[in-house]
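FAQ: What does a multi-protein file look like?

Like this. Sequence, then tokens, then the next protein.
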Amino acid sequence: MNHSASLRAALGEVPVVVRESVALAPLTHVRIGGPSAFFVEALTLDGAAATVRTCRELDVPLHVLGGGSNLLVADGGVEGVVMTLSRLDSLVRDGTAIAAGAGVSLASLMRGTREIGLAGLEVLCGVPAVVGGAVAMNAVTRGGSTFDVLASVTIVDDTGEIRVLERGDLTPGYRDGGLGDFIVLERSSSCTKTTRRASMPASPIRCAAAMRPSPCLAAASGACSRTPTAPPPDSSSRPPAAS
């Protein structure tokens, strides 16, 4: 079967962009790996759902690409379809609730909420992920987890149906959102109102500083740490020099 022609025909009227032999290395943090056979950019939630249905109907393997921070791509590339949700990057506020598309980076989400005086998401400071990946893997830090202020999540299931799951419908585990094969399209968070900028709690302020570019985070995948520098010896405890 000519998958290229079939995919293009099936997705021709759908809000997606389809390309072939797209290099994946530049889309990962470690910058290695081969190309994808087919690369689909979903422009809307319906576009993502239609891609799932099409791959299911044509029996084409489907892989979802998030922020690329915990991903190693084989040198031989990836068969089937690699779908990116990076274009699902909207941020919509309704009172203290904020809905973020799967392609929004956590850093952008936290900066956006801080700008409008909303707190709660700063516990995820320093996680190099996008919203979709963070929910799927239940990203955690010492301060809390992705699900702490999550109100609902919009997903597309393995049949291509878009559904909204409330927080009570979800049973996340440690570093596992418990979503199985569901693909996260959007999350809604219940934040708390706080004063803006300088008068905000210390944790969001530290978070804003931590989100500045770091050579370690820019070049690494996963976690990294700084080796502490030993303090200089206390000169007062040294024995007197021989005369």
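And here is the next protein:
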Amino acid sequence: MAAFGAWDMSTKTFTASNVLVGSSVVGGKLDSVEGTVLSRTGMSFVVGNGWIAHPDIASTGGPMGFSPQVTVTVGTGTMVTAQGQTGAYTVQDISVGQHVQVSGTFAQPSSNPTPGMNPTPSTSLDATAGSVQLIATQVAGTVTAAGTGRIG
């Protein structure tokens, strides 16, 4: 279980805004990747600059790593949630530019070309029976001109 929220020092209470349990917890029981959606076609999308986690250290050579691109496959059985939000979400809510945390099963590497070294990481994650959490995507830039009205 993992809980995210705010600690109130005066009352010594923790108010959770997001609670993850079971396979939704990174590195829990499923493989996972966290990154930004670079492209999407149908029921698959590419996550860029992915931080990957494997719960099974023995078969993957290590619990965490990095991959420049991971192709993710989703389906009707994929649970979709949004960080800090309630409501019903589906795989159709996943869009290019969205920061995501995806849990599923990495395809097994086809070979280990260098004995004694970590296996070649897979670049394919099957999340058809897994989950996708939509995470607030941060944007930074410079305002060069502002129109009338309110921004907020």
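Q: Is there any per-entry metadata?
A: Some entries carry free-text notes. For the entry above: DSSP finds one helix and eight strands in the chain.
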